[in-house]
Amino acid sequence: MSAPSFSSFPPAFSSFPDIEPGPSQRASTPQDRDRDSKKRKKDREEKQHREKIKEKPHWPRHDESDEDRRYSEKHQRDKGYGATDDERRKAKEDLSRTRLTDEYDARRATSPPLFYTDRKADFLNVRYGGLYAGDVPRHHLVGRGRKILGLESAWSVVHRGNNGIEIGIGSRRKVPGLTDSSTRHLLASATTRRLLPSSGDQYKYEEVEGFLRISSGGRRHVEPSYRSITAPKQDAEESESQSSSSDPESSEDDSYTTPMSSLQATIKDLEERLAADPSSITSWLSLLSHTLSTVPITSKNAPRARSEITLSVLSRALSAHPSNAQSKTLRLRYLKAGEEAWNASKLRDEWEEALKVGGIDLWIEWLDWRIRRADDGVDGIVDDARRALHSLSDSEADEVGKLRIFWRVAVAFREAGYVERATALFQAQAEFAYKMPPPLSAQPLDAQLDSLEEFWESEAPRIGEPGATGWSSWYSSGRPDIPGPSAQSPPNLSTSDRDPYRQWSARELLYDRTHVLPRRSADSDADADPYSTILFSDIRPLLVSLHSSRARHTLRLIFLAFLGLHVPGLADSLSADPRDSTDARWTHGHLVTAPYLAALFPPKSPARRITADAQAGVLIGREPEYRSAFGPVKNWSCGILGPFEGIGLRLLAWGPEDVAEVNHDLVRGVFRHCKFAGQEDAEWDVLSLAFETVANADSASRISKQLLAMAPDSLRHWAAHARLQRHRGRIKDARKVYQTVLTSRLDRPGEGQMWWDWAELEWLAGASDATLEVTLRAAGAQGSGGTAILRAKRSLEEASLPSGTDPKEREAWIKLRALLELLTASPGAAMVVFDDHLGAMKVGTPAHEGLTIASLALLYYHGTILRNPVPPALLRERAERAVEEYPSNTVILGMFLEAEKGQGIWGRVRAMLGENTTDGVAKEKDLPRRVLEVWVAGWEKSRWEAEQERTRSGLSAAAQADRTRGSSALWRLYIEFEIRMGQLERAKKLLFRAVGECPMTKELYLVAFGPLRNVFSRRELHEFAETMAERGLRMRRGLDEEIEDFGGEEKARAEDNEDEEMDEIELNARELRRLMPY
Predict the structure, then answer these.
(1) 189, 336, 389, 655: which has the fewest Cβ within 10 Å?
(2) Of 5, 1010, 1055, which Cα lies nearest the Cα of 510?
(3) Could you tell me which residues belong to the region Disordered (predicted)?
């Protein structure tokens, strides 16, 4: 049967072929012939009707069809009965849609096409310029406009518009969602229209005598204008004015251009400023940040695209002005971007060109790049470090810079598995800096190193080892032969796992954490592991001579940090610009130790937590449960908080997680031998007392009394002893210390801090009268009346003026002044005192940061700890401003969380966790901030599951950011997060990326043998071991030896047979062999 031809008139049912079998399948009957005759007669009548329609004018096309008319009449009849029930109608529609979908699927599989498309055009389209909406040749509406003639019954018309119709299964139109591609494209598109200000009056109605006269809302009968014989004069004037003003309007429309977005306007403004001043480094960096904001860091191929943008902008900046080429900030960003786009030779040449500028920041970044390249293993690291050390001078700043290089090399040794060599490096440098014999102090550097080598090769006890007395004591005693300490016995591996790969990984990790001190050549196990015995020639090229007191003090703090006792803010304080320092990438390895990981991630709860209770049939939500707002991550500027200055209920800066993985005996030895001889060293003594308090509070009290016996007049020692008593809960003993020491006001160093400690003790105990009395005594005022309070305020104001005293001392007097205002007035008045002093300080300085923390702590103690009425907005608003100024300060972030507790809206907290922007520019986050955000996701105990994707997104952004991408601690945390979420395959992919970014980190490789053993095949594990050997990583025992001891190759293959069978490639190969030859 041939396809019928559709013309411009509506098609009829007879135009379509019959579904019945054709004549080849059955013979015709009389009934069929009768039906055919009736059909031909009906066709002739319809043809005559169409010819009559053609004779009529074509433009009035608004005649309704019979179907539409019947539907309209029925709609009018049904309208009087009111609206149907919504739920019943929805249920009917859902049931109908399901039935129609099933029917359509069933018929589509067996039925042939039931309609044909007519390609013949309507000749009247040329005359009238378009299709007639009621007579479109391609389709014909039936069934009250809901169906299309010839289309399956499951499909319905869901929308009719000027551009055509939309069909779908069911009767409802699908509304685009926010996740659809069209919606995302619309949201991401630039602005195409804008509202132009009116050139006329501001209001629609004219102002008359101070008010706007508007028309009434009622409708009035107004005759049409065409019935008026003469036009009013006002209308004529308006038409004339409109015609006269049409020219400027048309010219304005002709000159109209697409409006610029805020980002485009900002970039244009920056380009204009750079054209006027091309040497502005700040403007170039701002232009780079705004340009990079167009490519989100988590988008596809973001690293490559962002690097190309950075190279384009910074290449202009470096060539725009001669002084820009000397900018270290521009050079470092330029080279970081080049790592993604350049080949190895070009990148090496660019680094050599940049090193001509000089500066410790460039040298430390160059050394970090060389370590991440892993070209020549550990020997190459030593050569590169020697070159960097020789490029620096003997000034105080360069001595601190040498210590940064020294620290970086020691961390690289430890990450590569050479833990004994890294510890020996610090031992030798500490002997050289603190235990040098007096007769050798005037000798040349080579002579001093020769004498130190003699001491080292004698294998006498060194700093940190039992029985150590130091190089100076050994030299003055006539260089005796003192036997070294006995070798440590190998620790027992407590594991019941029989897998040889897991056992090998656990043993390597255990030995790296316990065997930190170098062995002696006389030890029985020295020959079995030659890397455990360290010769002086292995560390001599890296030793430096230190003369300034700052460098010598920095060395011992670095030694503590290397041993695992984190000193907050130390790494950033060593850089010339602490906010741009990236040393935290390799200095914060303590964040991924076992105690920290246990504190960062919430514990697994097997039972589902009940979030609501039912009372009389009504659901009542339970009160949210929170963890402490002050988490395990501790980060603030160096010196802002002392060792005994905690926040909240914790009175110490360190916690149990900070000392859990630390070798206590080794740290005690460092505190004992690295003390400055011949002078009072109160800061070091207080630091050692704080460590002992966390490790063993009972022995700390005894040590504190010994320190007081050696320095009875030191107020800092007495303040530390009183703080120790407060920590142990002995408030009366602490009060007795204050009353005894502060009997008179003698203006001694540390007196203001001690007066504040006493006032704080009484205030937190709830004794307001005693607190006021102590504050007045600190100010030297007598009595307690209004006159004494005014005199005390004046005295405290004078004491808090800027002077050459210790910044912590001035801060103590300011806090006393604010506390006095709090006790006698209100919290708002106390904040005015802080604001007056903060306004005179520069934002970003340690003094400003410390006073900001003090102001927040005063509100937190007054409202949260002491339960006094305080407007919640007071703490919340100040905490929000403080977070903007110091985004990585964990104390301020803890105050911010306390202010948000119980608000019920997590909008501000989510904004802090997300990749937020300022003026369209994404904010950079350092490693401590990224780690803290992981902890904040589980701060509210019931929200950890809901915040997992947000946490994953933050870690993914950190893994691609230039500031944190090269951090092995970040990759270890990211992988641990996926392991705890049960995403082992995703963790495996991350591990391959991690070893590519940090190829010299042994612990990353061992993750494949331990937690990810189930997703790694035996072949992949052996390839990992070969890669470790090629890159020079130290393995205390070879993997092949472990496998042989376990039972040989065959037994290992049998144990690993289950994993091999699950290999996807092997499964595909077996299936293909089974199906052969088909």
Answers:
(1) 189
(2) 1010
(3) 1-95, 222-260, 474-499
336: nearest Cα among 372, 301, 360: 372
**Residue 499 DSSP code:** -
- Cis peptide, bond prior to residue 112, ω within 30 of zero: no
With a CB cutoff of 8 Å and minimum separation 6, the contacts of 971 are 959, 990, 993, 994, 997, 998, 1004
The CA angle 532-567-891, to the nearest 5 degrees, is 145
Contact 750, 716 (CB under 8 A): yes
Per the CB < 8 A criterion, the answer to whether 544 and 553 are in contact is no
**Contact status, residue 318 vs residue 357, Cβ threshold 8 Å:** no
Q: Per this entry, what is the length of the chain?
A: 1078
Quote the DSSP letter at residue 963: T
Spatial separation of the C-alpha atoms in residues 686 and 642, rounded to whole Å: 9
Whole-model pTM: value is 0.76
Residue 207 has pLDDT above 50, yes or no: yes
Q: Round to the nearest angstrom and report the end-to-end CA distance of the chain.
A: 41
The number of C-alpha atoms within 13 Å of 536 and in the hemisphere containing its C-beta is 16
**Mean residue pLDDT across the chain:** 81
CB atoms within 10 A of CB 536: 17
Beta bridge partners of 161: 164
Which ranges of 358-494 does DSSP label H, i.e. alpha helix? 360-373, 377-390, 396-415, 419-434, 445-457, 471-476
Residues 6 or more apart in contact with residue 362 via CB below 8 angstroms: 328, 331, 332, 354, 355
SS3 (DSSP) at 656: helix
Q: What gap in Å lies between CA 1065 and CA 1059, rounded to an integer? A: 12
Query: Rounded distance, CA 862 to CA 864, Å?
Result: 6
Query: Could you state, in order of their start, the residue ranges of all structural domains in the chain?
Result: 13-169, 261-354
pLDDT band at 138 (very low <50, low <70, confident <90, very high): low
- The answer to whether the CB of 561 falls within 8 A of the CB of 658 is no
Task: Please give the Cα distance from 28 to 31 (Å, whole number).
Answer: 8
Q: Distance (Å, rounded) from C-alpha 508 to C-alpha 518?
A: 16
Q: How far is 671 from 683, CA to CA, in rounded Å?
A: 11
Cβ atoms 994, 1005 nearer than 8 A: no
Q: How confident is the model at residue 96, as a pLDDT? A: 62
Single-letter residue type at 655? G
- Residue identified by tokens 């244009």 is 268
**Do residues 720 and 706 lie in contact, with contact meaning Cβ atoms separated by under 8 Å?**
no
Backbone dihedral region for residue 730 (phi beyond 0: left; psi -120 to 50: alpha; all else: beta): beta
Phi, psi of 596 (to 5 degrees): -70, -40
Cβ atoms 891, 647 nearer than 8 A: yes
Torsion of CA 704, 705, 710, 715, to 10 degrees: 70
What is the Cα Rg of the chain in Å? 41
Distance CA 327, CA 330 (A): 6
Higher pLDDT, 243 or 177: 177
In angstroms, the CA 806 to CA 484 distance is 44
Least confident of 181-185, 539-543, 769-773: 181-185
pLDDT tens digits, residue range 310-336? 999 999 999 999 999 999 999 999 999
